[in-house]
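Our collaborator T.R. sent over the components below with a one-line note: 'Predict the complex.' Nothing else. No constraints on interfaces, no templates requested, no preferences about which chain binds where. So this is a plain run: every listed entity goes in together, and whatever single assembly comes back becomes the starting point for the next discussion.
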Amino acid sequence: MSETIDIHAPGVEVKKSCCYFCHQNCGVLAYVKDGKVLKIEGDPSHPTNQGGLCTRGNIALLHLDHPDRINYPLKRAGEKGSNQWERISWDQAISEIAEKLNQIKAESGAEAVATAGGTLRTEDWARRRFMNMFGSPNGFHNALLCWIPTFMVETAVSGWSPFETDLADSRCVILWGFNPGASGMPSMRGYSDLKKNGLKIIVVDPRYSETAAHADLWLPLRPGSDTALALAMIHVVIYEGLANMEFVNNWCIGYEELAQHVAQYSPEWAAEHTWLEPELIRQAARIYAKSSPSNIQWGCTADQLGKTAGAGMHARAVLRAITGNLDCPGGDLMPGPAMNYVTDEELEANEWLPEEQKAKQIGADKFKLCSWPGYQLISDICKETWGKAPTAEWMCEAHGPSVFKAILTGDPYQIRALLVSATNPVNSYGDAKMTLEALKRVEFMVTCEYWMTPAALYSDYVMPIAGALERPTIHNNYGVTDSLLASQRAIQPLYERKTDYEFWRLLALASGQDEDQWPWETLEEVFYYVTYSFTSLGYQFNSYDEFVEKYRFYYPPLHYYKYGNNGFCTPSRRVELKSSILEELGYPSLPTWIGPAENEIDDPELAEEYPLVLTTGGGFMPYHHSEQFNISPLRFLRHDPYFTINPIKAKELHIKDGDWCWIETRRGRMKQRANVEPSVHEKVIYAQRGWWYPENGPEGDAPYGCLESNVNMLSSVDDEHCDPIGGSWANRGLLCKVYKVKYGDEPDIQFSIPGSSKVPGVTVMPSDQRLAYELIPYNPLPTFEVPEGLTWDKGTKIAWDLERGLAYDPDSGWLYDPETSVFFDLETRFAYDPETETLVDEAGTHYDMTTKQPLGDITPAVADVEGGE
Amino acid sequence: MSHAMNNDKLNKHFWVWPIACYLFLGGLGGGILFFAGLFDLIFAPMFGTSIGSVFALGVFLGVVALGVGTFLLVFELGQPFVFLRVFLSKTAIIKWGAVLLSVALIFGFVYFLFYLPPEWNLFYYGWTWIRDICCAVMMITGICVVLYTGVLLSSFKARAFWNTPVLPVLFTVSALSTASALLAVTAGLWPAPEYLILGGFAALPMHDLAEYFVEIMHLIDTVLVAVEIVVLLVYVVMMYAAGNNTARAMALKWLKGAYAPLFWGGMVLLGLLLPLFFYLSGGVLASIIAPIFVLAAGLLLRFMVVFSDVRRPIPGEERFYSRLPKGDERFLSANDCKSH
Amino acid sequence: MTRYAMVMDQRRCIGCQSCTVACRTWNDLPMDIMFNPVVSEGVQGVYPNVHQVFTPLICMHCDNPPCTICCPTNASQQDEDGIVWVDSTKCMGCKVCVNACPYGARDVSALDPFLKSFVRKCDFCKDRVREGEQPYCVATCHQKARIFGDLDDPNSEVSKLVGGLAVTTIFPELGTEPQVYYIPDLGGAK
Ligand SMILES: Nc1nc2c(c(=O)[nH]1)N[C@H]1C(S)=C(S)[C@@H](COP(=O)(O)OP(=O)(O)OC[C@H]3O[C@@H](n4cnc5c(=O)[nH]c(N)nc54)[C@H](O)[C@@H]3O)O[C@H]1N2
Ligand SMILES: Nc1nc2c(c(=O)[nH]1)N[C@H]1C(S)=C(S)[C@@H](COP(=O)(O)OP(=O)(O)OC[C@H]3O[C@@H](n4cnc5c(=O)[nH]c(N)nc54)[C@H](O)[C@@H]3O)O[C@H]1N2
Ligand code: SF4
Ligand code: SF4
Ligand code: SF4
Ligand code: SF4
Ligand code: SF4
Ligand SMILES: [Mo]
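Returned assembly:
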């Protein structure tokens, strides 16, 4: 290739595009001639990758025009799943889809239409905009496994997630269930550089990961026990006097209660749960607390622990606060929403979704933080603080697994249509057998994809989508940070592919949404709108492309101690170690231990049958989740799935390196090959995620081998295993057994609700399923005395004159009409007339402010208006 | 292409049967020419020039062996036209092989022409000096070719099981042994042209001459086979005891592993011990069966050695290659592979 | 004079194999040919006292290359700057050089004796390098675990690394004088 292509030849343009095979969005230079990409290279001047490209980045051209790509809209021409298609035009596809969706909306309500997404891969705010205007609250992603609950818990506690690690000035970082050595190549380079300069790296990982290999201190804990570790670290910090009391006293509330509460969580207590020596826990806590400024870096594990997840996020948020590492130089910074460009939330049109539709969001009655109840609380404070709120797409969604269950059971109501975009649910959501069944059974399904995935196969329409080289990209961390990375398209989409944005826009228009609401025809137009305000900062550009070519990225200067002026963005303006938002939603207000979904301490009987601890998490090269399994140069490097087992255990089970084995949990079994290696504890099994076999073809009940080696057949989405706070389901810290595959063993494809391989079918309706713990009914009490005749409303936290719809303002002692902002006298209900500085009754009679006596004549007032008593 | 895919670069054999045959045929042909030259130059004065006709057929087969070997070499080593560049190389050991082989081939062929019936003979029968030159060249290049086949392999430092001076010794002994076996079997089967029967022990009939010669060859081969047993064992045991881990693993494969049946049963028992016994017992066993066994063993030895081309693995290579596709995986026939 | 060399910083390599894929794409290699695999013996030791090293491989561009001397056609050759490469138009596919290389750096695509084949190997991306760019696998490595440069230039990163650290080479006892150096990762987590 290199020999024949001259990138300096006349007519060859260099486009500043990017790789979107993971969130790093490495910069790519694309050499383009006559609408064809001749060659790509890592962009040496890009801030993220500095010229680097990983395995996936390097196959972008193969991906671009791969023979298996979907290039035209396809309409189902046979039975669902029969892989018979008719090629149709976009116009026909869009108008037929719109018609069907409108019909369902008319018959069953807009909420019967749901959309499923995966991880951040495309313009998801557009999907939200569509759904809001369409009227359905049931959009979701598997984002609950991927940072979103962490973001929301941390935001509830400290007003914004402190996810921006200021490592240049830091002295210590904890990489907690995070393995950039396989999941974030460019950031791993950063860690290696910083380590050389003295940054201490603590890695929390049950497995000797690529990153653990570079740690100064490695905490090899039992999978799923992270919350116990975090709680014990709080204990050490508090009881060894390592807390930053200045920060705690000035900026935190609930410290005393916290201290009392965590007295029980000593390292000795944690040892049983985490399998870590108490001394090791102490050492980690000391290093972290004493090396301040130091950081805790989020890792995906945090969100995949199931029922124990939320408490762990809360504990880590607390840990940062009591050590004084929030928003200080070298600490964990809270960027807040972008003030200098249009945020995703501002593009979502959330105000369009009626309250009664919000209330129908599936799962929001159980998992409240990352759905409307919690999001509303948080976005209200954020808007009050900044006038801007976190993205609702991601942060405020239906509970995906519950939607799949609703498809299968009609409980709480029937979901009739599913729009799937940028996800391969069978492989990446939990309980794969149940998920596959839901895809098979949903009445109407549309999938926007690159490939024929199992989901696409069962669709009624499959829409061809443009990839990273064919569309412009803005990357800004799910829309909740203040910086952005911008890239342009290298070429126009090939064949009849379109961007996801165009799909949603066309669908919106065809289903009757107002064209004025979708004024931007292309993504470039949207992005020009998004970035336009940079022109007021002195940036000069007349189009988005020009912005990319000239500037490429925007990093505002770091602002430390942003809380200094107005306090933190929480109800109390303090870091709420004891969280009022969590309390209000019915969750423990202090981080409270609850064991991982399945564990030998809470459930010794289960542990007898399933004696090993399983983790199904961990990105590995060269793949990104379930992608690239059809790209042979990558598949070549790892063509079979491998699970890791310790040599001692393997010997005991007569398993040799390379043997095909079943891994079985209560929910089912799937097979992978044994990687016999001492990188995990004797009792731990680490299985690879993502595996399917596109080459196996669409035939059979489990097409493309999607239930052969699929680790998510083992994970649990049962309500009792999900985190009641954030709703994330259980991927890590499960109980399993392992045994060799024998000739003639049957694959496992029977679905069940709740997940059980022994009792197939639906045995408990979703609404009868219980959460891991019962939500605590919470009545926020008024912080002032409620005057007689007024009613306290815990929802709005306002005392109301219900009869006249007047709200009470405890600061002034007046009533006011929230709509007209007219003030009324509490005693008499007379309105205040600012012109005459008198009170006026309904008949128009004026009264004296203090005496409340009628006035004959109106003379300009001299009286003081302040009191009302 | 998937059928030919072999990703295990450690256990991949870059040289296969043509090279094994080439090494065998080269050794055989070289050995024959060496013996022919030797006998004709040194014993001819005693027995008369007719001596050559005793092993004329052998020489013919030797020349054929060299020809076929060269063909295999060119065929295996590349395209004929590019092959000519070989002669321009200054350093390559292969070049010396090619030069020696070509020279031996040409002189062996010329020598053989003397034994054609007079009406086909291009040379004046009296030009014995040409024959003498041929003999001398055959003798020297013959033995050089024999040595070269072993030296070639032993020159590869990268290949643990080849890289030993014992290998040229072993190949030389084996080559001479196969050569004498073939010479013995074919002795006297070529009708000697009358005009060559001149002077010396001329009185000795062709038949007796052949018998006498066969006895000598048997004696030589008996000794060679006995020596070969020793050298072979020395080779393998030395590889086991003194070699590095890679050579040792290979030696184990010969002694106890996958190659053990071939080694003990094929090489040692059928290929060496049995012929030795046959030679000693005489009769048809010695005159026909033993040489055939010896020849087969010679070929087997070349195969076994060529397929023992192990390279010392860089730590981690074994694990790496063992986890690559073997070639029959389904995804390999997927669309994007076909384009390659 | 110029003497190109590469340093592999094993303290930084995470075994992602991006370099392997990058080279494959850049050089449009067939499926079964790999110029630069990254190998590892896996995790060693007893949990949790374990360690793992990754070894990125490549042609060592030996100072004393056995692969060029043995080449009967001179297709295998070494340039003044140390780059060892194969002129595919001259190569007859005899595979002598493949057998001569102790590092498995050479390969032929077709092993079928009936097919025409020629030897392929890493050429240090000489076309890029001689235009002042980095070899492609070096540019693509996010970890900067591969460092390339001119050993004869005392200011180059490679000469500093080779001069200043305890670098090793693979199989130095063979006398091939490899010009790819390794900075071993002796550490490991506590
Ligand atoms: N057991 C287990 N399960 C996990 C995890 C785990 O660690 N363990 N990790 C979880 C995490 S962190 C995540 S983020 C999820 C990921 O879950 P998903 O995001 O669902 O990941 P994929 O399975 O790769 O599916 C993505 C699909 O989107 C398609 N696609 C890619 N880009 C685009 C695009 O721009 N537009 C459209 N329309 N389609 C596109 C791809 O072809 C692919 O089929 O998986 C989760 N699942
Ligand atoms: N190669 C590759 N890179 C990716 C992705 C991919 O699929 N493949 N996905 C991308 C996406 S969407 C995401 S969210 C990120 C995620 O990337 P990370 O945040 O790094 O998360 P994972 O890779 O899922 O898991 C990190 C580590 O958690 C460990 N682990 C498993 N169970 C537990 C546990 O119970 N406790 C603790 N403490 N650790 C545990 C695993 O061994 C693993 O090393 O990666 C992104 N990058
Ligand atoms: S897949 Fe690799 S090249 Fe692409 S953005 Fe992620 S790290 Fe960068
Ligand atoms: S790209 Fe770099 S880090 Fe990755 S395997 Fe290659 S040398 Fe190692
Ligand atoms: S590594 Fe092998 S191919 Fe490269 S120069 Fe050395 S001997 Fe030759
Ligand atoms: S295969 Fe080609 S490069 Fe190698 S030695 Fe033979 S002719 Fe030379
Ligand atoms: S230097 Fe070039 S040819 Fe050699 S391995 Fe790296 S990318 Fe491949
Ligand atoms: Mo993710």
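Summary for T.R.: DSSP finds 13 helices and no strands in chain B.
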